Amino acid sequence: MNSFTLSGFLRTASYRSIWMGVRWTLLLSMAAFWFLLSWIRNEYGQEDSNLWLVMRIFVQLVQWTLIGLVATTVLSAVAVWLHFRYQLLHRRLALDLQFGDGQKAEAGWVPLAIHLNGQVFRPFFGTIQAQLLFADKQLSQVVMLDRDRRRARQLWRSGISGLGRTLLHDRGIHDVEHVLLTFGDMLSLVSLPVKIDAVRQVYTLPRAQEPRVIQAQPHSTEEQKYRIDVSKRVEGEYVNYKEFEMGDSIRRIVWKIYAKSGQLVVRIPEIKDPYASHLYFYVSYFNGLSSDHGAFETEMLNVYKDYVRNVFEALQRNGYEVRIPADQEIPKLAGVSEKKGELFRIAAASWQQQASPITFVSASKAAFVCLPSLVPADEVGAVMKKVPEQVPIVVLRLSGAIPSPFRFRMKDIFFAPEEQPADKLSRPWLLSGLRRTLLANEKQIESTLRQRQNCWMTDTIAIEHGV
């Protein structure tokens, strides 16, 4: 049974009110006009009064003027709405939706363009507005279709379009089901809806942070079957020695090895190797502290994905191809290349409770390991013992992912801070039982990390400043 919540009721009521076609301003205007007429009749409605004779003529003039104005603008919107539905029924209209760069964009305020091609009229001094309707009955911000589309050397317009932005805060896949068009009159008294099917999937990437450098080397060398365009220098110790042969310079003889073993070996001069190994970046999305998928978990996942993208791009600067093994099944999306889909796989991942880090991380391949603080401390300790010490392990502190309601900065005195979607979670998070559990687990993780070098815990402040 679904539990009743006030926010859910208001969201459902707001969604259903769109299909009514009549706005609250019409009902409020009719009620205010009726009360005003009643008051004037009660105060001045005396048949033998000369003042009432004049006021009655004035009231009737105002009354019929308003009725004519409302009738003109409302009937204009209704006529245009009926014409649009007729054109849509006979498939004479085409809808084009442009989201971000076509399929993806960074999370936040995403550019959105909507184009309608065909014979489309606007209401007399009215508007046509468009919104995306997602699978979870969420609506995007309104885009005003206020631009005309014309072909070259054509006087009449071929359609209308609108440009705007919509807020998509959560990183991941968004299922668009319909585009909702509303035809409004000049006085915003009616809003006549039309729903157009526009099924497509778009996704938002984690936000890019300030670039930083993370030194990492492949932990194990793979077979030399992945040729690269730019040859890399190969440096090392014993792998660069070979037995002395005729023609080798005696200046490259390693006398230390000859003194120990009596074998003549020479150093191999620096060479260019046209092959490179892959760097495996193990990212765990294991949530061992919460089985819910609420607003707190969603916001922590957003912050975690931003951090993972930052580390991923930093590792790429080492010159190796970075691979991210998946600890869950990632949905496929048309148009996303398998070879260049690492950022998509980061964006599409979610919290899971099936593959724990101890079973997921491969000690023979891992070159860098990233864990969320939602992983229990004993699991973190088990991963530390399993992975070689030269492999870095970083744990992201998620207790600070949701900002504190008492946060204050000096510049807030002079400039009002921009409101963020996570701000409304600040007060509930402060009293949440998950927060207390998470803080206790992070304290144990910090104690566990001290037992091993080359591992540390970071937080969201480090993400913001690129430390």
Written description of the protein model:
- The structure is a single chain.
- The protein has 467 residues and is an alpha/beta fold.
- It folds into 3 domains: 19-205, Immunoglobulin-like (Sandwich); 227-275, no CATH class; 278-465, no CATH class.
- The protein has 11 helices and 18 strands.
- It has helices at 6-17, 24-44, 50-89, 255-261, 295-316, 342-348, 357-360, 377-386, 426-430, 433-449, 460-465, and strands at 94-99, 104-106, 108-117, 127-134, 143-144, 147-149, 159-168, 172-184, 191-205, 227-234, 241-243, 265-267, 271-275, 278-283, 321-323, 366-372, 393-396, 455-458.
- The strands form 5 sheets. Strands 2-9-8-4-5 form a 5-stranded mixed sheet.
- A hairpin with a 6-residue loop joins strand 8 (172-184) and strand 9.
- Helix 8 (377-386) packs parallel to helix 10 (433-449).
- It is elongated.
- The relative contact order is 0.09.
- The model is unreliable at 221-239, 271-276 and 463-467 (pLDDT under 50).
What is this structure, in a nutshell?
Helix content is 32%, strand content 24%.
- What's the N-to-C terminus distance? 46 Å
In terms of quaternary structure, the protein is single chain
Helix coverage percent of residues?
A: 25-40%
- What string, H for helix and E for strand, traces the elements in order? HHHEEEEEEEEEEEHEEEHEHHEHEHHEH
What is the domain total for the residues?
3
